[in-house]
Amino acid sequence: MKKIKVAPSLPENVEVNELGENRSEVIAYPFESGYAITLAHPLRRLILGSSVGYAPISVKIDGAAHEFDSVRGMHEDVAVFIINLKNIRFKLPEGVERFEVNYSFVGPREITAADLVNDDIEIVNPDAFLATLNEDAILNFTVVIAQGLGYVQSEDLRDEVASDSIALDAFFTPVKKANYDIQNVLVEDNPNYEKIVFDIETDGQVSPVDAFTNALETMYKQLSVFNGVLDVEINATPIKRSNDDSEIKAYLEPIESLGLSARSFNSLDRAGMKVVGELVLMSTTEIKNIKNLGKKSLDEISECLENLGYGEDFELADNTRVNLVKKIEQLKESAK
What we know:
This protein is an alpha+beta fold. The chain has nine helices and 14 strands.
């Protein structure tokens, strides 16, 4: 017999399980029916969007005036060097928000992220490739690393970097994956209670548990705007909201924000792909048919989309799809 309630029951159990390096599972239960998804979805968005990370925001390379230049004796063009540099995940000491570091290398040699480690800089992916130098090459460059949130385009950073440096698109987000699963759980004789299972993976700049904790703190702070809400006159008139611009905005992030390897990025760039939404709109078969896209690049792109929650099972709502197509067309038209 169903009992009459005057308030929803509160979940009492929380479990944290390590699934691997920089990957953890956070489980909470039991929630009343419908409450799990209500909490899980915004928390996932906050885990992905409010986690602080580090990224290079500018680079000054001796002998290179701009990103389309080349450096004598370096196999890679400056544009490829910059893409490789942005793929390196730096980590600064606690409390340091910005740091400038100088590097000098003499060829012949191959430079990896491990070569950029010093007493002030930690690298969480030391095997990442940066550049190859010929025997007569000398490479001197200065990198500015900053702490930040989300993704910031280079155009928005030009006022913050030196005039003789190249501003970089900064992908700060340290969270590689934040997914959740809602499962039914039996409480007494009621099988309709729910359990949230979060699966969180980071790049090593922060731990999954720290990313989750930070999301909770951010949610509490955002909700604090309603403190004393009973002292405010409540307007019963429904608020008219814009269609789905806030949702579409996430799909309009540049392809570079995915942090793909130079090979995968170049394949998409040559195909005219500029924003994440263009990939989300495509089926796996359509992505596979992109010219010069090899299996390794396909696997990398598929994994990246899966980690962001845009895997094969992901489907856009019809109105979102229509509006996203219009936005992409407008962007391409304005870029001509």
